[in-house]
Queue: 4 jobs
Job 1
Amino acid sequence: MAFLEIKDVIKDFGGLVANSNVSFQIEEGEIIGLIGPNGAGKTTLFNCIVGYYSPDSGKVLYKGNNITGLKPFQTNQAGIGRTFQIMKVTTGMTVVENVMVGAFCRTDSRHQAREEAFEILRFLGMEGMGEQYINELPIAMQRKVGMARALATKPQLLMLDEVASGLNHTETDEMVVLLKRLNTEKNITLFLIEHIMEMVMAVSQRVIVLDGGIKIAEGLPQDIVKNENVIKAYLGEKYAKSH
Amino acid sequence: MEKLKDALDFSDFSSAERIGLIIFSIFLLVFPWLGAGSFVKAVMIQFLLFSLFGMGWNTIGGYGGQVELGKAQYVGIGAYTVALLMVWWGIPFWISMPIGVLIAIGYSFIIGYPLFRLKGHYFCIATICTSLVLQDIFTNWKLVGAAKGIELPIHEHPDFLYMQFKSDNYYYYFIMVLFYCALFYMNWFRKSKLGYQLRMIKDDDEAAESLGIDIRWCKIKAYSIASAFVAVGGGFMAVYNLYIDPVSVMDLDLSIKIALMAMLGGAGSLWGPIIGAAFLVPLDRFLGSWLGGHKGLIGVDFMIYAALIMVVSAYQPRGIWGIIEQFRGKGK
C-alpha cells in the first residue's frame, strides 16, 4: 500500500485539460519533486489532491483511504499539509498567531497552541519574528510563515508549492537543509513543486515531470536530467549539456 | 477554569487601555447618582444596549469579517419571545429570555446553514432579505399582534421576576450587568480557538481551509453566538419599553445601526463596538432632539450623522479604534 497514490486523475477546465490521466505513487518518508514548465498542471494536481478541486475522474488514495473529493480541511485533518505559491500579505494577524491557527487544528488549548507555534518558529530559525506582521517580512520569510503554519497542523505529508522561488542562492541552500531536516527529524514525507532545478536535484529522491497535463517522466533526479522528453519539454538543451 | 481566567484577563492590553477600562467602569457604576436627567439616563441605557448588540455582531462581522445586516430578526425573536410568553402564559422574564435565546440560536442554525454558502455581497444581501421576510411575517401575523404590536401587562413595581420597574436605575444596572457579561465573554472569545480561526478566515480563507478549518461551520457558530447576544438585548427591549412592534424590534434600520456602530468604532477589536455606540447613540439622540424639532431643520441631524460616518470611514476603514491605534503607532 502506497502512502499517497494518484490513479488516473483527470481535471478538465471546460476544454483546457490541466491534468490528463496522471498516475503515480509516493512512499512514506520520501522527498518527491514535481516539475514541469508553466501551465503544466502542477498546482492543479496539488489542488486535486488536497481538495480545492475535485478531479473529474480518477482517484486519490492516502494511506489506502480514498480521499478524492474531500474538502481541504478534511484532507488537512487527515494529515496532509500544504503551502501556497503566493502568500496573501495580510495585516490582521502576527506571525505567531498565524502559526497558532495551524496548531489549533490539533488542540483546543491556547497555551498549548502558542507553545507549539513558538517551537515550530524555533525549528525554522524564526524565533524573533513572532510578534511581527506578515507584511513587515521579506518574501522568503513570508513563505516560511506559510510553511510554519502548515507544519503546525502536524502533517505527515507536506506539499510545498514553489517554496524556494524568489530566494537567493544562500537562502535556497538553507531551504534544502531545512527540508532535509523536516524529512529526517520530523519524519514528514515531502512533495514539492519547484522551478529552481538546482534545488529539485539537490533535495528530491525522485522527480515526477508534468507537461501539458501529462506525466512525461518519473525517476531519479540524475536520470530525469538525461531524459529526452524532459529536456525537450522543460530543461532545454543548454542545461542538459552542461550537466 | 482556564476560560474564566481568559475572560477576566486583560493583561495583554496596554496600561492606558486598562486604566481607561477601570475609569469607564467606575463611571458606569456611579452614573445614576450623578444627577443626570431621565433623557440622559435613557441615552445611557441605549448606549449599553447597543454596545451589547455591537459586541455580538462583532463575532461574525468583526472577527469573522462577514458583513451581516440581518441582526434585527434576532432582536425581534428575543423581544417577541419574552413579550408573548408573558402575555399568553405569564411566564417570567428569567425563563422566557433564555427560551428566546435558544429559539434565536436554533433559528440562526437553520438560516445560517444555507446562508453561508454565499460570500461577500451576496451574503450581505441575503441577511437583509431573511430579516425583512421575518419582519413581514410578524407584521401580518394576527396571533402575534401583527402591525399593532404587543403591549406587556404592567406589574407592580418593582417586579424582579418580570423585570418591570418604575425607576430607570434598575434597568440601567440590569443592562450594565448584561454589558459586562458580554464584555467578558468577548474578551474570552477573541482568545479562543474559534476567535483565531475566524480571524484567519477573514485574512485568507483559502489558507484557513488548508489549516484544517471548516470555514462554513466556523461561520455558522459565530453567527449563532452573535444571534444569541442580540436576542438577549431583544428580551431586554421588551421589558424596558413594555411595548414592541415589528418596526421597533425588527426593522432594517436597527440591523444597519448595529453593524454601523461596530464598524465605525472598529470591527474586530474588543473596544470597537463600545466606542462606536458611545459615539453614535448620543449623537443620534442629541442631534435628533436639538435639530429634529426645529422647523426647516428636519433631516439635518441625519445629514450630520451620515457625514460624520463618511468622514471617519474614509479616513480609516478600521474605524475610530483604528484611528486611535494609528496615532499610537500600533497596527498598520
Job 2
Amino acid sequence: MTQHSLSGERAAAMRMLDIRPSRGWRFVNLRELWEYRELLYFLVWRDIKVRYKQTAIGAAWALIQPFFTMVVFSLFFGQLAKIPSEGVPYPIFSYAALLPWTFFANGISQAANSVVGGASLISKVYFPRLLTPLSAVLTSVVDFALAFIVLIGMMLFFRIYPTWNALWFFPFLLLALMTALGVGIWLAALNVQYRDVRYVVPFLTQLWMYVTPVIYPSSLLHGVWRTLIGLNPMTGVVDGFRWALLGTGEAPRETLCVSAAVSLMLLLTGVLYFRRMEKTFADVI
Amino acid sequence: MSDVAIRVEGLGKRYRLGQRESYRTLRDALARGAAAPFRCARSMLRPGYRSTAKPKSEPFWALKDVSFEVKQGEAVGIIGRNGSGKSTLLKILSRITEPTEGQARTRGRVGSLLEVGTGFHPELTGRENIYLNGAILGMKKAEIDLRFDEIVAFAGVERFLDTPVKRYSSGMAVRLGFAVAAHTQPEILLVDEVLAVGDAEFQKKCLGKMGNVVEEGRTVLFVSHNIASIRRLCPRGLVLDHGAILMDGPVDEVTQRYLGVQNPEVSERIWTDTARAPGDDVVRLLAVRAKNRSGAVCSRFDVHGSVTIEINYRVLKEGHQLCAVLELLDATGQLIVVAFDRYTDGPWGKQSPCMPGFVRSSWLLPEDFLSPGDMSVNLRVFSPPLEPNAAPHVRELDVIRFAVADGMDPGSVRGSFPYAWGLPAVRPRLHRFTERLPSAEACPEAEAWPKKE
C-alpha cells in the first residue's frame, strides 16, 4: 500500500484489460461501441462543422446535389424520353427516389475512404475502428435530413398531401442506412488492403443507380427482371419511399423482405470482414 | 494482480518486411481470382494477404519475448536506440496494434500520448478542438466541461480560443495538445517522446505536469531520448535493444550503463601530423590527455583521486595572445566545469602575445570533486577578446572522455551504501565542521524558544 494509492471508488472503477493476439473471426463488440458513443457524436460533429465552415453556400450543399440532379433528370428523362412516372409529376417522382439514393451514394463513398483518410487517428489512438465508417455514414444522414426539407417543399408545391403511410418512410430510411453501412464497411476495409477501391466506388455507384428504379419506376420491369432488381436492397428503399410519401404503386412487401434480408447479410458479412482486418489497420495504413 | 498496473508476459510483435512497398490493387486481385478462384478467396480472407508472391518476406521482430511488471503508481522510463521497439511496445499497450504472441494485462484506463494534438483539425477553433481532442482521448463531454478552464489556463490560449487552430503558432498548438492530453487523468499514462517538440519552457511545464501525475499515484511509462528528463521523472528505467529488454533497474544505474555502452572511452588523443591536427595557421593542437595523480594516462578514475587534463599545442605565428579553455560535460551533456588558462597573466585582452613554439597547459581537477559518471572534454584555444561570432583557433568538442567511479571503500562515510545520493553535477568535499553550542546564550536564534525547566 503505497503512500500515493488511489481512493477507494476509483480503485473499484479500474478495469482489467487483456491484450493478446486475437485469432479467428470476431463479431462487433456492441458494449464497446456504446461506450464510445460520445466519440461517435464528436466525429460526426467534426465532419459536418468542417464541411460547412468555409463554404459560402454552407448547408445548401446538401440540397444542391439531389435538387439539380432532379432538374436534369426531369428534363431528359421526364420530358424528352417521356419515362412514365406512376401518376405523379416526374420531378417529384424522381426526387423522392433521389433523396434516399443520394444518401446511400454519398454514404458509401465517404465510408469507403474513411479508414484510410483517418489514418492519422487510427495509428495514434485506440477506439473501436468501426466508428470510422459509421461516422461517415451518419454524416450523410444529416445531409439527408436537410434534403428532406426540400422534398416537403416540393410536395406542397405539387399539392401532394401525405397520408399516414408517410410514417413508413422511417423504416425505409433505416433499411437504406443498414445497406449503406453494410456496403460502406465492406468498402472501407477493402480500401485499406487494395488502395484502388476508392476509384472503383464512383463507377460502382453509377452502375448501382441504373439498377435501382430511380429514373424509372419499378413497374416498368416484369418477370425475371423485376425479381433481379428486387435483390438490390435500394430497390425496396426507393419503392418504399415513393409509396409512403407519394402514394404511388403498392406497398412493396415482398421486395421489402428480400431487401431487408440482403441488406442484413451485407451488414453482417461486412462487419465480420472489417473486424478480421482491423487488427492490421495500424500496421498497413 | 492486486497492485500491479501493467503486466507484460512474453510479448512479441512481428512485421513482415517488404509489405509496405506497394499497395496491392484490386485489379491484381481480380486477375488472380479469375485464374484460381477458391484458393484466392481463402487467402484473401486472411489478414496480411499479399497478392504478389515475393521471394523475400523475412519477418522482422520489433519486439520479442518482452516481460516486465509495473506496479500502480510507478513511473518507469523506457530508453533505447531508434528502432529498438519502444514505440511498438507503447502501441501494443495502447491497443493500437495487436501483438503477434504473448500477452499484456493493464488495470485501469490507459491514456496514451503518442503524439501531441492527435485529431486536431486545422479548420476548427481552439475551443472545438479541445472537445474533439478530449473525446478522441477518451474523455466524456461532462469531464471536458469540468476541466475546460484548467486546460485553457495550462495552455495559455485564452485569447485565441475562438480562432481556427490553423492560425496558431506551432508552439501554441503543441501546448494546447499537451494540455488536453495532460488532463485526461487516466490511471495509466503512456507517453512517447512528446517532449521532443516545443521550447524549453514548454518542456519544463510538461515535465512538471507529468511529475504531478506521478505524485497523484498514477502509473507512467515514459519513452524519451532525453535522458535528463527521464532521470528527473522516473526512479526506474528499462532499456530496450532490438526488441528485447536489456536492462531493468534503478534509473541512474540503467542510464549510466546505457550511455556507457554507446560511448567508448578514449582518454588520450595525439596528432602527429601538424597539417592535419586541429587548429589553424596560428595554433595547432598536438595532444590531449587525462592523467591521474601519479602522472599516468588512464581512462577510469576514482572519485577520491585527482584528474589532470593536459594539452600540448604548438604556436606557429607570433604576435597573438592565446588562451585555452577547458569544458567538462557529464554523460547527459550537462556542462559541469569551465576553466581557462592564461598563458601570461594580465588584463583580459592585454596580455603579452605568445612566442612561437611548443606549449603545455594543464588543469588539475581536485580529488573528491567530480560526481561518478562518464565525462567528456571540450577544448577551445582562442585569442582574447573573442567576439561572439568569431571562430576560435582550435575548437575540439568531445575530444577525450574518461570515467569517474565511486569505489565505495568501507572506510569512507558512504561505505557500501549502494544507492545514489541524488544526481549532483559535482560532489566536492567541502570544508565543514559541527560543534555543540555550550549554552542557549551562544545561539541568538534560540531567544524565542521556551527555556527548558
Job 3
Amino acid sequence: MMLGWRGQLLRVSLSGGTIKKEPLERESARAYLGGLGLGARLNAVEATAPDAESNLIFMTGPLTGSLAPNGGRYTLIAKDPVGNIIAASIAGNWGAELKFAGYDGLIFEGSASELSYLWITDGAAELRSATHLHGKTVAETTELIRLETDEKAQVSCVGPAGENGVSFAVVVSDYASAAGAAGIGALMGRKNLKAVVVRGTQGFRVAQPTNLLELSAKLRRRVAAAPIALQGCVLYETVLMADALAADDRAPATDIARPRGCLGCASAFSSLVDGTTGTQLLRLSGEKQPGRVGERLAQYRRFTDLGLDFLAMKSVLSSLGVKGEDEETAVACRTAFGDGPSATPSQDAQASSGRVQQNEYAPTERSACLVGDYAVIPRLANCFRCESAHTRGGSQRLMAALESAGLCPFVAAVLDAETSAALLQATTGIAFSPEEVLLAGERILESLGARGVSQPSAAHAVSAIRG
Amino acid sequence: MGVLLITPEKCTDCRACELACSLSHEEEFNPARSRVEVLAWDRGAHSVPVMCLQCEEAGCMAICPAKAITEDRASGARLVNGSKCIICRMCIHICPFGSTYYDVKGRKILKCDLCSGEPECAKVCISGAIVYGERSKANIDKRKQAARKVKAIVRGAKR
C-alpha cells in the first residue's frame, strides 16, 4: 500500500463512456511526486496521434489534503496543439476530496457525445448527462450539481466560456479559484466535460502520523508568520492579495474583514482584503463592496463566474476600448457565450496567463490561478531575482517540487529543502533527502520543457528571501 | 481543566482542525471521521468550527443506557468508553449541537475527547478560531472587549 499517495488513478474515456481504475506507479510517483510533475510525465509518455485531442489530467500530490501548510493544491495538465505541456494549478477543497475518495488523479481521454459531468463518490464513478447545465455559470453549476449529488460534494467546472471554447477560459473550483493556462478551460469544454464532482469519506493514511502532526503544526505557524511576498496591498492591475490577516490579533472592525483560506491554508490568501483599511472586499456571496478595488473584485467575481480568465478578459476589453461597468459586463457575457468580439488577449495577458515559458525568471506554467498568477508569484519572482546566481536554480526547483507535492509553490519562500524532505518522508515513508527533493524539482522542470537547471545542490536556496 | 473556546469570526475555513483531528485519532486524513467539522455557508463567506462543548449537564452522559459516557476529571472531557458502548446512537439523537457522530468506517461513536487535555485542533488553528485554555481564563479576551465597550459608553455619558 502506498502512503501519502492513494496509489490509484482513474482513466475516463469520454468518447467510449468507459471508466477504468489504474495503479499509480510507485517509481514515477517517487520521481515526479505528483501534481504538475506526475501529470506532465503521464501526458508525455502517453503516445497520442499527432492530431488527436490532448488528454486532460487532474492530478494531486502526496501532500494535497495533508496538514502540511497550504496543502490544498492540485494541477490540471494537458498538451497544446503543438505538443507542449500546459498546466495550471489551483487550490481549494477539490484536490483533497479526490484523495479522500480514493484517487490521486484523473485522466480524461477523447470527448463526450453530449455535455457530461463525472460524479465520483468513494471509489465509485459515473458519467452523467449535463445537458441541463448548458450555459450555466460556475456558481449555478456548482449549486445545481450539489442538489443532485451531495451537498458536500466538491465541484470543479467550466463556465459558459469553457463550453464555448473561449481561448482564455478557466476551470474553477470552490466558486472562485480559477486555473487557466493556454485555454485549459476551453479544452475541458471541447471534451464536453462540464464538471468533475467528488465526494470522499475514505480518507488516506500517512507513514508517520505523530511526526507529521508535530511538524505541520510548527510549519503552519512559520508560514503564517512569514510576510510571504505580500505587504497587504491590493494591486489594481492584477487582483489580490491580502496580507496574512489571519495571524493578526486585532479584531476585525466588522464582519466583512474575515480572512478566507483554501483547504489547509496557513496564510488565508484567498481573502481579498484592502491593505489600507483591512476590509475584505470580495465576499464570496458576491455582495458588492465599496470603492474602486471593490468594483474590480466584484468584476473578478463576475468574469470568473462566467469561466473567463479575469486578466485576459480585462486585456481584451481595454484593447477594444470598452469602458464602463455595464458595457464591460455585457461584452464579457457575449465573449463567454461565444458571440463576442474576436477575443484575443494581448501579448501581455497571454504571457501571464499563458503557456510554459522559457524565461529564466518567470516561474513557468503557474498562470491564472487565484494565488498563482495574479500577484503572489510575480512578486515572489521578483524576490528570486535578488538571489545570487548559484542559488536561483534551487528555489525554482524547490517551487516545482512543492507544487507537484501539493503545496502552494510560494511556501518555497518559507520552507527549505530539508523541511520539504521531512514533510515528504513523514507522509510517504520514503526516505527523501533534501537533494532528492531538489532533484525531483529539476526532473519536473525538465519534463515541462523548461530549461534544465544544473547548478549544484542548493538546500537553502530561498534563505535570501526568508529573513 | 480546560475548555475549547470558539471564535467563529476568526475561522478561515481552512479545515486544518478536521485534518489534525482525524489524523491524531484515526491515523488518517479524513474530515468524514473528524470530531470537529467546519460548517460554511453563503458560498464559504462564513464558517464555524462545530464540536462537542463538553456540556456540564451532558445529555449524552445522562441518556447513555450503557453508562459508557463518563467525565474525565483531569481534562474535563466527556469520554465514550468504546468497550462499554453498545452503539445505540442515543447520544447522537440527544446532542443539541449534533456533535456526536457515528463513524461508518470504524463502526463506533465519535466525540471530542479534548485529546487528553492537549487538543490538536487548537494547536494547528493559526487564526485563533479554536483556542484551548483554562476554564477561568479562556474567554478573558471577550470579557475585556466587553469591558472596553462599557468603558467607552461610560466615558461617552460623562462627556
Job 4
Amino acid sequence: MRYLLISICICLVGCASYTKKNNFKEVAVTNDVVYNPYFSDASKDYVYKAKIEVYNKTFGGIFIVKKIAEANHRVVFTTEMGSKIFDFSFQGDDFKVNYILEEMDKKILLNILEKDFRVLVREEEHVFNKSVKENTTLLETEIASKKYFYAFKNDQLNSISRVKKGKEKVQFIFSDISAITAKNIQILHHNIKLTIKLKSIN
Amino acid sequence: MRNILYLLFIMVVTVHSQEKMTTVEATLLKEKVKAQAAETKTITSDFIQYKHLDFLTNDIITKGDLSFKTPNMVKWSYVDPFVYSVIFKDENLYINDEGQKSDVNLSSSKLFKQLNKLIVNSVKGDMFDANEFEISYFKYKGNSDVHFIPINKKISKYIKAFHIQFNSKGDVVEIKMIEPSDDYTRIVFSNRILNKTLSDAVFAH
C-alpha cells in the first residue's frame, strides 16, 4: 500500500505538465500561430562561427543558413578553411541531404541534426496552448510529432524547448538579439552530450 | 544581326579571358614555378578567403595570414572575423580555435594525408604531377591560370579541381578549390614574401 502511494506521488510529480511544474498559468490562446523570426529574412546570409561539443570533443566550423523561399531553408556547415561538412535543405516538411561527409553519414546523427535544424529554421507553427508567468509567455506547439514550448519575454523569443514527459530534452537559447537577428544561439541536449554554439560573424 | 554581334562580342571576351597557353609557354611556366618552389625555404603572406556557395547573396569573407617553412610546415591563421589557426606539421593538424587547442593525427588516414600534401604543395604552386592531375594551362589578365583536375577518384570526391594563378615571376597569387557541386573556396594572396627568416616557434602549438 505504501509503495502504491509512493508510486502515485512519483507519477503525480513526474507527470505534472511542464508549464505547471514551472508555475505558469494557462490562459486562452489569442493568436494561434507562433513565429520564430531569426531566419526569416530571405535577403540575408546568416553566417555563424560554430562550436560543436560532442562527448567531450570539440570541433569548430562555419554554420550557414539561407532562406531560399517561403518555408524553404538551406543549412550548410563547413570547416573554417571552407570544406563542406554537410549541406541540408528543409522545404516544408521535407528534408534533403545535398551533401554529407562520408565519415558523418550515420543515420542516428542525421536524425538528430535534422530534428534540431528543422526547429531552428521553422518560421511559424500552430499554437495549442498558452500560459504565462510575469512577463514570460509560453506557447506550446508540435513539430514532427514532438512537443515544443516557445518562451517569449516581453514579446521577444528567448528559447525553444523540446519537452517529453514534463522534462526538457533539448533547448534552443537565443541571446544578443537585435531586431530579428539572434547573434548567439545555443542548442543544448540534455539526454545526450551534444551542444552546438553559434556566434554570428556577419 | 545585332544579336549575332553581341554573341560574337561575348565569345571574343570569353576567349580573351581564358586563352589557352601554347605547349612552349606551358613548359616555360612549369619550369619557372618548379625552380621558384625549389628555392623557396619560407613564405609569409596575407590572404583573403572567399567562400562561394551558390545560394548565398554574398561570398563569406575571412582574412588572415599564412606561413610556410620547408619541408612541410604550414600555418593558416584567420584573424577576421574570428581568431583561428591550423598548423599542418608532420602528420598532425594543430588547431587553435579562439584559444581552445586541439590536434588531429592524420597518420591513420591515407586520404587526409594526401589532402594535406595537396594543401602544402598548392601553397608553393608545385603540383605539376601528371600522374596525379590532368593539367591545363591558360592566360588570364596578365597572369597564368593552371587547372589541376585530380585523377584519383577518392580525391575528386572532395575536390573537383584546383585553379592556381601565378604572376609573371611564377609566384602563386590565387588558389581556387572547386567542389564537386561547383561551390568553391578562393584564396587571394597579398604581401607575399619569400625566404624571410622564419623561426620554428611560429609553428609551435
